[in-house]
């Protein structure tokens, strides 16, 4: 594929011509990105032949692991048979069968599937659905979205508008009048001496207060990730999900559960909303694990009751939301094969079985004084640096993510650094021995970072 182009020249082309997502603009055209050449299972190999464990599983997405020849065969067959057809007036078996399959797996009356190109476009579709429904119901003012600090929902204009991570919109414009943010729900950030139960009451009260302040007739939706993953694997206190859903129902506010990370196995279930947190939302967005990252695809799953409120007697009203690649047949085949592999190889059962070992190895890192909090669920984990580690400077503590990233990289482990945190979501097929391999490298890296921080 590279036609013998030298690594140095490729690097030059990459710097000069490719705009990478989340590029650091102060180092524009200076950063070197790590060229990865191949992958198998939970491992990646770079251009020098060095092997890495993929700690973040791509971007929380490579659930069945890399290098599946059966995925390649299914995808190739569909490319040869029918690579594309317009979603205007035609349909294909893969998209029809996938829609039925997702409807069967999704909770409650979430039976209606709109295919998108990824997570951001699924979130965009969910929010536009809320606009459409409220316009159809003759309540055009009921459009404000309640979202949460540290929430991440994507990079389109609307999805970034409801994203609560400041860094992600520092120089971009967003539609501020469309959204209100609730403060951090992270139990780790609760005041000293406050119980988790009281924290939950306070967080639920934040939502109630916001609704009272803005007015329920102005609020169209509440959007929430079951676990705020990109915000640092923040797990809201127990009972929070059910109580916030009840409040939304009381005020006829749509509850959008953004399961872009948590659906398709990350917590050992197809969907976390119902099976893990006991709620049936009005809309679920998903992507990532739907195809295990083999091809881009997302879905916005809408309940029957919302659909009923969107359809009416008016003629010539189109649901004018669509993409050239909506319901792309090759991507739908990749999703179907991915789900088939997960079913045949009992990957959800495996995830549930391996979770206690993964979580106990994660929590064993508390022996490192530089670690402030360890949290996780299923095959999701986060290490957060201690804010007041004795003998360390604030600057170094802020860099914990970067230092850990560097130390892990040297040892052949990729992690995802986030300021003073590092997050993990390895492929779900990881074995117990591989979990150990990963944590041996991590502990070794933490030793090095501890020494570095002490001498900083
Ligand atoms: N929602 C959540 C919860 C996500 O984690 C992400 C991506 N990290 C998105 C939406 C956006 O998905 P995509 O990058 O596929 O557009």
Automatic annotation (TrEMBL):
Its cofactor is pyridoxal 5'-phosphate. PROSITE patterns: AA_TRANSFER_CLASS_3 (PS00600). GO terms for molecular function: pyridoxal phosphate binding; transaminase activity. Gene3D superfamilies: Aspartate Aminotransferase, domain 1, Type I PLP-dependent aspartate aminotransferase-like (Major domain). Keywords: Aminotransferase, Pyridoxal phosphate, Transferase. It comes from the Bacteria. It holds the Pfam family Aminotran_3. Belongs to the class-III pyridoxal-phosphate-dependent aminotransferase family. This is Aminotransferase. It comes from Roseovarius atlanticus. The lineage of its organism: Bacteria, Pseudomonadati, Pseudomonadota, Alphaproteobacteria, Rhodobacterales.
């Amino acid at each position: 594929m590279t036609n013998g182009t030298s690594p140095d020249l490729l690097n030059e082309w990459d710097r000069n011509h490719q705009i990478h997502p989340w590029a650091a603009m102060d180092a524009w055209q200076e950063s070197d990105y790590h060229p990865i050449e191949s992958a198998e299972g939970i491992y990646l190999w770079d251009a020098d032949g060095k092997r890495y464990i993929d700690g973040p599983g791509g971007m929380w997405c490579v659930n069945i692991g890399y290098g599946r020849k059966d995925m390649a065969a299914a995808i190739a067959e569909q490319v040869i048979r029918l690579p594309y057809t317009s979603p205007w007036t035609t349909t294909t078996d893969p998209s029809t069968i996938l829609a039925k399959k997702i409807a069967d797996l999704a909770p409650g009356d979430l039976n209606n599937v709109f295919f998108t190109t990824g997570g951001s476009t699924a979130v965009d579709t969910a929010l536009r659905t809320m606009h459409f429904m409220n316009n159809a119901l003759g309540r055009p003012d009921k459009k404000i979205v309640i979202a949460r600090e540290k929430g991440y929902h994507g990079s389109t204009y609307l999805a970034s508008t409801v994203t609560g991570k400041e860094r992600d919109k520092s120089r971009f414009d967003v539609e501020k009048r469309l959204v209100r943010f609730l403060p951090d729900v992270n139990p780790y950030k609760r005041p000293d001496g406050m119980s988790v139960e009281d924290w939950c009451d306070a967080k639920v009260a934040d939502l109630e207060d916001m609704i009272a302040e803005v007015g329920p007739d102005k609020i169209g939706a509440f959007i929430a990730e079951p676990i705020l993953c990109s915000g640092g694997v923040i797990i809201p206190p127990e009972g929070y999900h059910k109580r916030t859903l009840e409040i939304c129902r009381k005020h006829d506010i749509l509850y959008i559960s953004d399961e872009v990370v948590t659906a398709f196995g990350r917590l050992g279930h197809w969907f976390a909303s119902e099976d893990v947190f006991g709620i049936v939302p009005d809309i679920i967005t998903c992507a990532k694990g739907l195809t295990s990252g083999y091809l881009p695809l997302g879905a916005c799953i809408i309940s029957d009751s919302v659909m009923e409120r969107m359809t009416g007697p008016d003629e010539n009203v189109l649901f004018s939301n669509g993409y050239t690649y909506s319901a792309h047949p090759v991507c739908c085949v990749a999703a179907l094969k991915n789900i088939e592999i997960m079913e045949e190889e009992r990957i959800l059962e495996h995830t549930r079985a391996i979770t206690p070992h993964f979580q106990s190895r994660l929590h064993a890192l508390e022996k490192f004084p530089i670690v402030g909090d360890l949290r996780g669920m299923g095959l999701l984990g986060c290490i957060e640096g201690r804010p007041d580690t004795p003998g360390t400077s604030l600057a170094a503590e802020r860099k914990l993510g970067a230092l850990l990233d560097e130390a892990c990289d040297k040892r052949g482990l990729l992690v995802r650094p986030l300021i003073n945190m590092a997050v993990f979501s390895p492929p779900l097929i990881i074995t117990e021995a591989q979990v150990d391999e990963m944590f041996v490298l991590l502990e070794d890296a933490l030793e090095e970072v501890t020494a570095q921080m002490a001498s900083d």
